[in-house]
């Protein structure tokens, strides 16, 4: 598996006033994040509002990210679906458009049994020609991928890692690298000797999260200092809070698409107070 990096930001998808993808803002944000700690980007994930992108938009964002990436950064493309045929279509499209790796969530809503999950990933692994990162997030999918199942899936071609967003499952897994799927477990994942995390607070505090990788002796203290950030950014779904924070900081990323809604007055005040406490609003457009 190629090195994807330690700080992979699950980047938001900016929308303009007409609701269309703002490609210029997306490219500018990638370059800003790369200059502030990010090694790469997960595009078209949950925080990127993949659920509200049609296939043309979805594949265009992947293509744009791969073509306009800052030098030395990596692109991991979200290609998950609860329809195996659709997941294969997105997988093929992402490979054709230059993604370095693929993020594939287990089927949500229809919640197949264990044999169905294995069959789903077997079909995806047959068409992929680059690393697959599994995504275990039972709070969104409705079903957990236990560690013994993850180890079994690791035997399939191209399945190389897991984004672990079930904190209770956090443990080494034979055959898989582990990426923190929740910001608050980045320290624990790094302490296990694993590569890093697929993160959202790195939109805001990327340099500090970068230091958690580069300065292991300071990792625990940095983690403790970031707990108020993680708390403030969890007052609403990540796509909402990260767009609110970025807009406050002067990055015009627009508002989320329905069914997500713009941060309300209380949520915005919570995020603004956190940014002010950290001195991040100095010189920003608010």
From TrEMBL:
Pathway: Amino-acid biosynthesis; L-lysine biosynthesis via DAP pathway; (S)-tetrahydrodipicolinate from L-aspartate: step 3/4
Annotated localization: Cytoplasm
Binding-site residues for pyruvate, renumbered to this chain: 47, 198
Organism annotation: uncultured Solirubrobacteraceae bacterium
Purpose of the protein: Catalyzes the condensation of (S)-aspartate-beta-semialdehyde [(S)-ASA] and pyruvate to 4-hydroxy-tetrahydrodipicolinate (HTPA).
Major localisation: cytoplasm
SMART domains (UniProt xref): DHDPS (SM01130)
Name of the protein in its database record: 4-hydroxy-tetrahydrodipicolinate synthase
Domain of life: Bacteria
Family under the similarity heading: Belongs to the DapA family.
Positions annotated as active site in the UniProt record: 135 (proton donor/acceptor), 163 (schiff-base intermediate with substrate)
Reactions performed catalytically: L-aspartate 4-semialdehyde + pyruvate = (2S,4S)-4-hydroxy-2,3,4,5-tetrahydrodipicolinate + H2O + H(+)
Alphabetical list of PROSITE patterns matching this protein: DHDPS_2 (PS00666)
GO cellular component terms, semicolon-separated: cytosol
Entry's EC annotation: 4.3.3.7
Pfam families in UniProt: DHDPS (PF00701)
UniProt-listed GO biological process terms: diaminopimelate biosynthetic process; lysine biosynthetic process via diaminopimelate
Keyword ATP-binding: no
Site feature (Part of a proton relay during catalysis) residues: 46, 109
Keyword Cytoplasm applies: yes
Known partners and oligomeric status: Homotetramer; dimer of dimers.
Single GO term (MF): 4-hydroxy-tetrahydrodipicolinate synthase activity
